[in-house]
Structures are given as structure tokens and as C-alpha cells.
Amino acid sequence: MAPGSQQGTNRASRNSSNVNSGGQIKKGRGKAKNVALDQYLAKSNGIKPKVNIPDGKLKPVGAWAAEFTTELGIICRTYAPIRVAQWKKVEQKDKEQIYNLISDKFEIDLNCSRILFAVNKMLSRRFKGYKHELHKYYQTFNSHDEACEKPFNDVSAEDWELCCQEFASKKIQGILS
Prior knowledge:
It is built from 8 helices and no strands. It is mostly helical. It has one domain. Helix 3 (65-79) runs antiparallel to helix 4 (92-105) and helix 3 (65-79) crosses helix 5. Mean pLDDT is 84; it is low at 1-19. Residues 1-31 are annotated as: Disordered.
């Protein structure tokens, strides 16, 4: 048996620590934070970490690759307009704001078309994943009206209402289900 493993316990009993004495499930991990990047930027005297996306690749490689990907997810969830169904339908001015936020934290050449293409691919995946997370939350409710009354974390009531309408539309039902 490996060190630290529990013998004779099943998964349900190990996960029972996630329930408090009132029977309510504890909250999960919370918002994502890019702690390593934030600490580096605080100590680096304005020197940003360099991100390298090699020719023929759509993902970064090197020391800051994971932090770059994490930051794209955080920026996408925070600043991308969820009123649109897909990343390719996000207006260019909104994309420019996101590119500026990326450039503020990383040394990356977004003027290079292949790098911009790769960054857009990554942002598209992050956006799609976030919309999926919103849709899963929407599906936890018994009715459309009930879902509209309880917005997802950090989503304005107005944006959530539009999301709910999108999820309820017959066109989207065929795509998402």
C-alpha cells in the first residue's frame, strides 16, 4: 500500500468531509488566482514574463506556459462579453481590450499573425468552456424562470438573463444538448 493511502475506506466516506454538520455542502475552491504570476509581477520591476509560441504550435511552451494559459482563462471569464454565443462573434473592440490585458502581464508579440491566431484559439477554448459552465449551472434549475432569478457567480443579472434566453432558445437547445 502506498504511503498516506487509506485502507478500507470508500470514496463516499472520504468525501464526507465536504459536508458540514448542517448537511450543507461546503463551497469549492473559489475563484482562480494566478498567484505565481502576481508575485512575479510584483517583484520584477516591470519586467514581464516572456511567452513563446513556436511555429506550428497553438500553445505556449516554456517556463510561463501554464501561467499564461491560466491567465487567459481568468481574463476570458472576467472581461469577455457573455452576451455572445461564440468567441468569433465577440466584437473586435472587446478583443482588443483583452489583448491589452494580456500584453500588460506578458511579453508576447500579438502583432505576429500566427501568435495572434494561437492566442485566439486558446481564448476561444476558454470562452467555450466558460459558456459550458454557465449552461451546466442553468440546467441545475427546474425551470427557466427559476434559473433567471439566480445569476451565476460574478455575472450581472442583465447578462445572466440574456444567457438564460440564449440557453432556452430552440436554436441553442439543438447545439448544446
